[in-house]
Amino acid sequence: MNFNINPLQTSLENDIRHKIDLKTKPVGSLGQLEDIALQIALIQNTKTPTLIKPSIIVFAGDHGIAKKGEVNPYPQMVTQQMVFNFLRGGAAINAFSTQNNIDLKIVDAGVNYHFENIESLTNAKIDYGTKNYQDEPAMSLEQCEIAIKKGADIVTETHNNGCNVIGFGEMGIGNSSAAALLMSYFTKTPIKECVGAGTGLQKEAMNMKKEILASVFKKYTPSSPIEALSTFGGFEIAMIVGAILRAAELKMTILIDGFIVTSALLVANEIHKNAIDYCIFAHISKEQGHKKMLDFLEKKPVVSLDMRLGEGTGVAVAYPIIESAIAFFNTMASFEDAGITGNL
Questions:
Q1: Burial of 309 per CB tally in 10 Å (0-12, 13-18, 19+)
Q2: H or E segment and range at residue 97
């Protein structure tokens, strides 16, 4: 549970800013691309940053509350069905990852299904779904800590294979409820303002979801980030917490997806404040709580496309823009290189 995450080194910051400002353009005219280039250069502590073997890890897990079907329009079995869809290459995240040459790994964090040995599926199962937090905490503290460690270990393996830029996705019917509960706990936002449509609830069902989750939130008084995660979270969310913390410890550039992944970041941020410095927020989800999360963290998304699918799709779609930031930083001429006298 101990992660040694260093703050970003700033010894090269003035040199990096100078390099950006002397490109053949008006100062600041590439907007957020300049901020992204600066952040990645600081993460890597170099004036020539590179993006190597980009990867997205999708963690899948089931949630006990979803068995009743009161907070989700789709049955719990859709989680296992979508895992098979990922493995067959038929999901949106497969399409976007292939398009942008991003390595994709699928992890069974705790799906309520017994998968036979499948070479393309990483088996990190903690249990066959969490408990229903209407009745008891979602998982034990021991299970939570094991999940965090497994997420960290998977990132270590990915890093050891040469990856230095990584994003995370998730699949789990009911996980928008867990994310809303975590959001309310960490941001102190009233729970009913954190609840969204998830996989597509209509107004009446949304109102029921708000009432159920408000009742759940009142039932518990967690006293630490880990206790909150074990009470409200999912195995996939807990693994993403560990994955974020280890990726930051390894000085990787971390691309944050939407509502569910950002709820994991809220936990990671409480465990270690330096972790967020390694994160770039790929997009803003249409799930209503996500904007409030980003406002709380004081972060801007790279793109806004009204997406709310999850799976890491926001990361995959935004990745070419991240590449563009590094491309201009490394290859665009300076005024001196181009023989242009007088900055624009």
A1: middle
A2: helix 92-99
- Angle between helix 259-271 and 235-249 (nearest 10): 60
For residue 152, what is the enclosing H or E element?
A: helix 141-160
Taking the C-alpha atoms of residue 111 and residue 121, their distance in angstroms, rounded to an integer, is: 12
13 is catalytic: no
Indicate which residue of 249, 311, 323, 336 is catalytic.
311
Could you give the count of Cα atoms lying within 13 Å of 124 in the half-sphere of its Cβ?
Answer: 32
Tokens of 193: 């303002």
Other C-beta atoms closer than 10 Å to the C-beta of 319 total: 24
pLDDT (tens digit per residue) in 79-99: 999 999 999 999 999 999 999
* Distance between CA atoms of residues 167 and 240, nearest Å: 10
Determine the straight-line distance between the first and last CA of the chain, rounded to whole angstroms.
Answer: 50
Beta bridge partner(s), residue 59: 107, 170
**pLDDT tens per residue, range 161-195:** 999 999 999 999 999 999 999 999 999 999 999 99
Q: Which residues contact 18 (CB under 8 A, 6 or more apart)?
A: none
The whole model's pTM is what? 0.96
Q: For 210-217, which contacts have Cβ atoms below 8 Å and span 24 or more sequence positions?
A: 212/65, 212/70, 212/71, 212/134, 213/71, 213/177, 213/180, 213/181, 215/134, 216/65, 216/133, 216/134, 216/181, 217/181, 217/184, 217/185, 217/191
pLDDT in tens, 268-322: 999 999 999 999 999 999 998 999 999 999 999 999 999 999 999 999 999 999 9
Tell me which DSSP letter residue 154 carries: H
Would the pLDDT of 219 be above 70? yes
